[in-house]
Prior knowledge:
The protein is α/β, with parallel strands linked by helices. A hairpin with a 7-residue loop joins strand 3 and strand 4 (38-45). 34% of the residues lie in helices and 22% in strands. It folds into two domains: 2-122 and 161-256, Ribonuclease Z/Hydroxyacylglutathione hydrolase-like (Metallo-beta-lactamase, Chain A, 4-Layer Sandwich); 136-153 and 276-343, no CATH class. It has helices at 61-73, 91-104, 115-121, 130-138, 142-151, 228-240, 258-282, 287-293, 308-327, and strands at 2-4, 17-21, 24-30, 38-45, 51-54, 83-86, 107-111, 166-168, 173-176, 179-185, 194-198, 203-207, 246-249, 332-336, 339-343. The strands form three sheets. An eight-stranded mixed β-sheet has the order 1-2-3-4-5-6-7-8, covered by helices on one side. It has a five-stranded mixed β-sheet with strand order 9-10-11-12-13, with no helix packed on it. It has a two-stranded antiparallel ribbon with strand order 14-15. Residues 39, 90, 92-93, 208, 250-251 line the site of zinc ion.
Amino acid sequence: MIETDGATGADWTAPGVYRCAPGVYRIPLPLPTDALRAVNVYALVDDENALVLVDSGWALAAARDQLGTALAELGAGLGDVQRFLVTHAHRDHYTLGVELRREFGTKIALGRGEQPALEYLNRPGRQSFAAQQDRLLRAGAGDVLERVVALAPTAPPSTAWDLPDTWLDDGEVLQAGARKLRTLATPGHTRGHVVFHDADADVLFAGDHVLPHITPSIGFEPVPTALPLADFLTSLQLVRELPDARLLPAHGPITDSVHERVDELIAHHDARLAASLSALATTGDTAAEVAAVLAWTRRQRSLAELDPLNQMLAVLETAAHLELLVARGVVSLTEQDGVAHYRA
Length: 344
Ligand SMILES: [Zn+2]
């Protein structure tokens, strides 16, 4: 049964097909992680049987089945999807599209900025977290590095990261049936992240750039830019300058205002920058030491309470804040034996 999104106040992760705008349906798909339980895929349909999906989900049997069931409600099958427009090259957005393309020849489009990441991920014999290694050591978090590497020492050979058919450029206008979507490059969460704006329908397919309940991780990717947090804040300003639209996020329920959430995210990062700065005055001077005195997640957990993967994200995020303070001239940086030391 197709429900109107948000009408029942139900859990946003509940399997189903939820109508959120004319011809736009939200389809939550499961993820194998506790922290993020689902990813929203959006189906765009029109009278001429165009069927385009924004994001694809994680290549898991359960996600594939759930997508098949949802599309059946819309009178379509997995093989009827013409194109996946993918917001960024993270596993939960990209890999089910790659799997379905192998079977059905579906086309995949992805932001051009993801090219270095995919090339890296396709290197044979690469080690897991090799890309994070230098940054964790520089952050003084060798212990966190050991813990994450112990989880998965080498990356299994994988075809999950096959290249897309099309690289999308900033400003490119895409046609999905009669619908026009404008691609906007929004680097930050990843360097090639894009969002899709449908001005006629007043909706923004925001991927992980603007999420309603959580703040996206910054620069968790194989080949990050020098200042991913600065990129992210600039990208928030970019969508803040668009006319306000309904927020269609990749994780979480849809909400009425992109602007409202962008303002909250900017305020959050201002607060984190201030907290990082004052932590430097009272604690140690590495990113790992600052991360250890900050509170994490909505539940205000300590770094030690997080699992190794989230410890890594927390340390890298703290480093991103400190590096931005350095770039702004508020904090000075010295390096000793490969470890960055910051001083307010
Ligand atoms: Zn995601």
